[in-house]
Amino acid sequence: MQLVYEGKTKDVYRMDDGNYLLKFKDDLTGSDGVFDPGANTVGLTMEGAGKAGLRLTKYYFELLHRHNIPTHYLKASILDATMTVKPAEMFGHGLEVICRYRAVGSFLRRYSLYAEEGQRLDGFVEFTLKDDQAGDPPINKDGLIMLGILTEEEYDRIKALTKQIADLIRQDLALKQMELYDLKLEFGRVGEEQEIAVIDEISGGNMRVYHNGRFLDPIELAKRVLES
User: Fold this and answer.
1) For residue 55, how far is the Cα from the chain centroid?
2) pLDDT tens, 86-139?
3) Which of 30, 59, 88 is the last residue of a domain?
4) At 42, which helix (H) or strand (E)?
5) Do residues 199 and 71 lie in contact, with contact meaning Cβ atoms separated by under 8 Å?
6) H/E run at residue 209
7) In-domain check, residue 75
8) Which CATH number goes with the domain that contains 181?
9) DSSP characters over 117-148
């Protein structure tokens, strides 16, 4: 097994059989000790965050599989904080796709002249480039197509999948008296047929969820979802 990438919240290993192993860490994105799922730097370490993120990722990837939504997920070992996944080809150097139901985070910072904090959004989907130095800049459909990152068909497929996945997760959380404010997903091409699939993770590290108006950190979120 070979270490191929050291990420902010996960390390990635190439396995002998061609699959990959993701090792979840207790590091979280943010700044000055404050968690922010949209941040590009590690801001704090929270004991147990890695396993909590993996438990929730396993739960939601298995939920997607039950709805015939493709992912790169194969299996998880909670004890080791590791997840085995299929190899996936990124779009460009990586894309992040966000579905927003409330105006918070980077959306509010960009559009504060027009949006109020917490304002309802109708499942607004935006694409951003994975580029820490550039601050993960937003990019529209025309830009993605002209730069050769996505085809028009791939864009439409990813957008539709994002809305479908976010709606499934939103409904699941609502059943447990929680509200999804936003969700960040990543996609890649998987398998010989290059099928578009959800990759990376789906956890408290890449979503904002509130209960009775109070933000839930990744560990509390996992506990509430999995023990409800």
Assistant:
1) 14
2) 999 999 999 999 999 999 999 999 999 999 999 999 999 999 999 989 989 999
3) 88
4) strand 42-45
5) yes
6) strand 207-211
7) yes
8) 3.30.470.20
9) TT-EEEEEEEEEE--TTTT--EE-HHHHHHTT
